[in-house]
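Appendix B: complex inputs.
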Amino acid sequence: MTSGMSREVSDTVYAVVAAAGSGRRLGRETPKAFVDVSGRTVLERCLDGLAAAEAVDHTVVTVPADMVDDVRTLVDRQRPLWGAMSVQVVAGGGERIHSVLAGLHAVAAHAGVPHTGIPDGGAGGESGAETVVAVHDAARCLTPPTMIATCVETAREGLRTGGWAGVVPALPVTDTVKIVDAAGVVRSTPARETLRAAQTPQVFGLHGLLRANRMNEAREELDSAHPTGLVPGPLATDDSSLMELAGERVLAVAGDPQAFKITWPDDLDRAVRLVEGEE
Ligand code: C5P
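Resulting structure:
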């Protein structure tokens, strides 16, 4: 485990932006990250926010495979807008988890860190500095830059001191949440004060997150190999859950209502109103 062990943390901070979703729930032909929000696409606004945080040196964006060339051209044209932050574009995958992993592999290559078969304890070697990576949803394109900077700084502190292996920004939930079975029957009601709604960027050590991904892949392989599904597990919808499953300690820090995810048409309307100063 990464937590509990203090280590040197590299000054270079990476981000992976998951922008390869189809955005079917938004009801548009265009993939969600390329939908316009008052003159700039969701992805452009997301990159604007990451650059404005002044906390990230290199961002890897994962996009639908058939859009890689076009997005590279778009990104190249806008490079000066993002100051010191460089941006790289790679193809994502069929599920968010696969897109993020493609991005993490590109980060590992950029950082000169092996991404397969790393022995426990050492991205960049046991004694090497840990690389920090912030995983962000393009769809949370109005996330305040100050929140991004705080997430990165708090994650760095945890990695440096060994106190925690990463952070997830989160908000208390206002609804009472039910756990239901496949038939919709309510099974239980978790105590509301213990619940948080997770946002992004979620920030971890690269080694810890790659290791958690490998463990999850092994679990899925084991599950699919067994006729009765001995080790069933949900498809991870965020990166923190992989770290939690891998036994890592993740700290929840304050999220922000503006870091909401554009999912439904109403969310897009809200984003437009916020950008145009009407909300
Ligand atoms: O589908 P959802 O809204 O949870 O997606 C969250 C983020 O993950 C979005 O920014 C979306 O573009 C991205 N994603 C991805 N690859 C996928 C599915 C979603 O990068 N296959």
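Residues 9-275 form a domain with the Spore Coat Polysaccharide Biosynthesis Protein SpsA; Chain A fold (CATH 3.90.550.10).
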